[in-house]
Design goal:
CATH class of the largest domain: Alpha Beta
Distance between the termini: 24 Å
Shape: globular
CATH architecture of the largest domain: 2-Layer Sandwich
Strand content: 15-25%
Structural class: alpha+beta
Bound molecules: adenosine-5'-diphosphate, magnesium ion
Number of domains: 2
Length: 389
């Protein structure tokens, strides 16, 4: 997708405000997760990259308590008043992400000032590239500048997650916001979601992460996601009988699980198996990446997909088709579903020199196999959110 030029952002802002002052510019990237799926809310490990697609904003601070934003992607202008901000103001629109961030900042005691802004984005919505996380992180950064305070990155990340959990009402883990704020060009981010510590791991320089949006959304994806979260809690409850000190599935080792899984209800056993083994895969994947063993890394991506399909049951016909086609194409070392699943996207690690052929072929083969037109995004590891001077 095309990037909107800064000059166009400026023109749009002038149209919105009628004021010809020099704006402040901000950007916040989306992310793609290489491995470690459904592990973040189990306090586990993930390995995302922030990507070269994201949101951008041109903003004019104002003295009024009004926040007024035009989203070029949504082709809508929306506003709210900071002095009327409270839980009951939920609109069930994209404005909620901004209001949620505002409310959480205010709870922390920050005095917020209003602004007018143009938000542009080349990040598709709902494709598993976390446009919502980028929107929250962008909004928080804007408030920092316009209202004159600074937050440590980790505090900002936690706050943005709370905004999505509390105000928007999506019980997401911390990965999306973390990746958007902490991203680093040419690096993946290995995140320990319990300790909230991270380590940058060089992203292989001759490879790209190619995302394929299957074009299929599952109606029940939200309720199925919540159901998985419940199942993880139940599995944890079962294991706590033997290991009372354990606080999340992250704290259970494979040998501990294997000792008791015979007695677990089959569904819970499978869910726990995925989470416990996926955490091990992430640790191994990081090690392989550091040693430049892309073949081994790709194999773990494939294993991750298998586990998400069989044990976690979040794949779909189309996702399975897409990864199978990808694995048969030249230059692809591994492929798996990425994001929550139930439709959505896959990520494949592909040699840069083969990307063009890969994209052309998979577009054709996937359409022929499923009847859906896929969307493809060639991603590389990018820097996290910042104010652009
Ligand atoms: P994902 O984060 O995987 O892209 P979500 O459903 O979590 O999908 O978040 C998508 C929502 O984020 C959209 O429905 C919209 O409310 C908001 N959003 C994302 N990008 C924009 C944008 N450019 N302008 C306004 N709202 C956006
Ligand atoms: Mg999201």
């Amino acid at each position: 997708m095309e990037r909107v030029k800064s000059s166009e952002l400026k023109d749009q802002l002038f149209k919105l405000t009628g004021e010809k002052k020099p704006p402040l510019f901000f950007r916040a990237p989306g992310r793609v997760n290489l491995i470690g799926e459904h592990t973040d809310y189990n306090d586990g490990f993930v390995l995302p990259i922030a990507i070269n697609l994201g949101l951008r904003a041109a903003v004019l601070p104002s003295d009024s308590p009004q926040v007024r934003v035009r989203s070029l992607l949504m082709k809508e202008t929306r506003k709210f008043f900071l002095n009327q901000l409270n839980e009951t103001r939920k609109t069930n629109t994209w404005l909620d992400y901004l209001q949620g961030v505002g409310l959480e900042l205010r709870k922390e005691g920050h005095k917020l000032k209003g602004f007018q802004g143009i938000f542009a984005s080349n990040l598709p919505v709902g494709s598993g590239l976390s446009s919502s996380g980028a929107l929250e992180v962008l909004t928080e950064l804007i408030f920092e500048s316009t209202s004159g305070f600074g937050l440590a990155s980790l505090e900002a990340v936690k706050l943005c997650r709370r905004a999505e959990n509390h105000f928007v009402g999506v019980d997401c883990g911390i990965m999306d916001q973390f990746a958007s704020r902490f991203g680093r060009a040419k690096h993946a981010i290995f995140i320990d979601c319990r300790e909230l510590k991270h380590e940058y791991v060089p992203f292989p320089k001759d490879y790209k992460a190619v995302v394929l949006d299957t074009g299929v959304r599952r109606e029940l994806s939200k309720s199925s996601y919540n159901q998985r979260r419940r199942e993880c809690k139940e599995a944890l409850g079962f294991l706590k009988k033997y290991y009372p000190e354990v606080k999340a599935l992250r704290g259970v080792s494979l040998s501990q699980l294997e000792k008791h899984e015979e007695d677990m209800p089959p569904t819970l056993r499978k869910r726990a198996r995925h989470v416990v083994k996926e955490n091990e895969r992430v640790i191994e994947a990081v090690d392989l990446l550091k040693r430049g063993n892309l073949e081994g890394f790709g194999k773990l991506m494939n294993d991750s997909h298998r586990s998400l399909r069989s044990d976690y049951a979040v794949s779909s016909k189309e996702l399975d088709k897409a990864v199978n086609i990808a694995r048969g194409l030249r230059g692809c070392v591994g492929s798996r579903l990425t994001g929550a699943g139930f439709g959505g996207s896959t990520v494949s690690l592909v040699e840069t020199t083969q990307v063009k052929g890969f994209v052309g072929k998979i577009e054709k083969l996937y359409s022929e196999a499923t009847g859906f037109k896929p969307k493809l995004y060639v991603c590389e590891a990018a820097n996290g959110a910042k104010r652009i001077k």
